[in-house]
Sequence to fold (467 residues):
Amino acid sequence: MKSFIHNDFMLYTKAAKELYHTYSENQKIIDYHCHLPVKDIAEDRQFKSITELWLEGDHYKWRAMRTNGVSENIITGKNTPDFEKFLKWAETVPYTVRNPLYHWTHLELKRYFGIDELLSPDSAKKIYEKANGLISTKEYSVKNLIRKMNVEIVCTTDDPIDSLEYHQKIKNDGFEIKVLPAWRPDKARAVENPVQYKKYLEKLAEVSGVNINSYEKLIEALRIRHNFFHNNGCRLSDHALETFFFIKYTPSQISEAFDKVLAGKQISQEEIEQLKMAILFEFCIMDYEKGWVQQFHVGALRNNNDRIMRLLGADSGVDSIGDWPVAEPMAKFINKLDTDNKLTKTILYNLNPAHNEVYATMLGNFQDGSVPGKIQWGAAWWFLDQKEGIEKHLDALSSLGLLSRFVGMLTDSRSFLSYPRHEYFRRILCNKLGEDIEKGELPNDINWIGKIVSDISYFNAKNYFGF
Fold:
């Protein structure tokens, strides 16, 4: 019987198969954005079971299990036995058909454990025991899990106050795969909650050595930390925005608003937007000065369920797509940086698929000929990184920009078993181009189209980021 995850999975034409197997399959992975816990890499964590490895922090799976009627006590409860949790996931998987979790689950079982059998309640015990037997060996430590997937570079997501001690340890220990920090300063802009923000500033002041008693001192402290990140190999920033905004302000307005926050006062919505925008512009200038790549993840409506938030906190699977207006403020924001000659290489990610063409056309407004694909439309993100979402992204980018200059896929994941998502993307890419060749809509020049596939799979990111 043919395996579900077989050699030509998702490849439906001769050209698609040749493109994937010859030009994409064996390319190394540059995972330039993820949320892997760097401490686990530094300590080369050995997981106790596939439950711990697979379900501990994966809110994609939590969300599916809740929808399938599984109790929260089982999904995230501390006292539920590992096998009981795994069995509930096994019961859920057959109901995830046509959800990317179905493909990802079986790709992960195949690639990491050599398991061809479909996960279900009937197969759960056998799969659980086989996977756990492998996980108990040193070959399945965190570093070896990364090695198995032909990874070259991992960029984590790190707050400005982070010590980066684990990144330093990884480097000093001689791990051959680069694990680099990425600057994620969202909390440094979270002025809407003065009480929490002041606590954050206290930590920032401590690690920077700056007494943050004014807006100017805030920027000084952040620059010190930005320099520290740069000296530790960081070459990317990342910013989570509900939407872009563009609002005029004066230096005195920014200083006054910041002083109010320092005093513990709640500021107006206009002042919040002014202050957030001013700080974000400073980050963009820092990135430009150092030649970093800046990323903007836009459009998530986060933390919608108060009950889950009280129980588990953020990043627990209760986020969704938002629908804020974005085109005009995004254009004005980027244009301001471009006008001031402070626009560094930029990647824009949208979560609302209604904005696909908005983002795809925004890129061309600010290309300047200095770098191929200087302004990028980032990979289909979060709720969009499934087959249809990826195909729509590739179609819009092809129609309105240059697909050939795209820097390709990332995991955006907290799971050490998530690297087959790169394979998933590559198969979809090759199938789409292969179908165009078969239909005569692209020339049957496998070498040239193959080069484009290789570039999107690896070389564009290698050249763009310059790690």
